[in-house]
Amino acid sequence: MGWHYLITDRAGWTTPHSQNQTDNAAEVWLHLVDVNGWTEEAAAAVLGNMQHESYINPGQFEIGYNYSMLHGFGLGQWTPATKISNYIGSTNRDAMSDGAKQMNYLVSTPSQYTNDYLNPDGTSNYYNESGVPYFSDMDDFSHSTAAVRDLTKTWAICWEKPGATAYANSISDRMDDAEYWYTIFHGSPPTPPPTPPTPQEDDIPWLAIFMSKMLR
């Protein structure tokens, strides 16, 4: 496995469900489920949203803003991008594209998860939704075994917070992607590919990471 990234502000750094994207998805899954004890359903919901937001590319700048640090960046499209540069302590784009550090930031900043747009009864006036699972905070969400599609809505509304039109136009795809990743990883930890991917300039060496995991 191991992280892959491409520093870009354009769409489609890789094809959906490619080996690079699958490796990154596996790293997200391991970080949430194995390291931090999230349920598989919650992890899948995060991945479904990440695929829409960043193609699961930790080097993804928000499309259309010419690498602006005032707009979104990274796996979760943190806005402004300075949230990541400040956390990492560098504005170097390669340093900012560290997927593991971005995941550390995600789990260590639960305050990004809010119920500003979701009512306790599961309705959302802004997003015109009902029946959405409500949780008091991110920790509560992370332990849920509710349906993957429903949790995908919760994460989009409470963590990603896209515009209402963007949400309406993308929520079906987010839910489909979340179910895809749940199907791929459910029941067992992600396994490395049988052969290392072709080395690329922006890759972290796959074999070194795989061996380090085996020797732990």
Task: Give the helices and strands, then pairings.
Layout: H1 19-35, H2 40-54, H3 82-88, H4 93-96, H5 99-108, H6 138-142, H7 148-160, H8 164-185, H9 206-214
Helix pairs in contact: 1-2, 1-5, 2-7, 2-8, 7-8
Quick take:
With 216 residues, this protein is mainly α.
- Here the CATH topology equals Lysozyme
Please write the CATH class name.
Mainly Alpha
For the secondary structure, the number of strands is: 0
The secondary-structure class comes to mainly alpha
CATH architecture: Orthogonal Bundle
Question: Rg to the nearest angstrom?
Answer: 17 Å
Question: What distance lies between the first and last C-alpha atoms, to the nearest angstrom?
Answer: 15 Å
Bin the helical content. 40-55%
Percent of residues in beta strands: under 5%
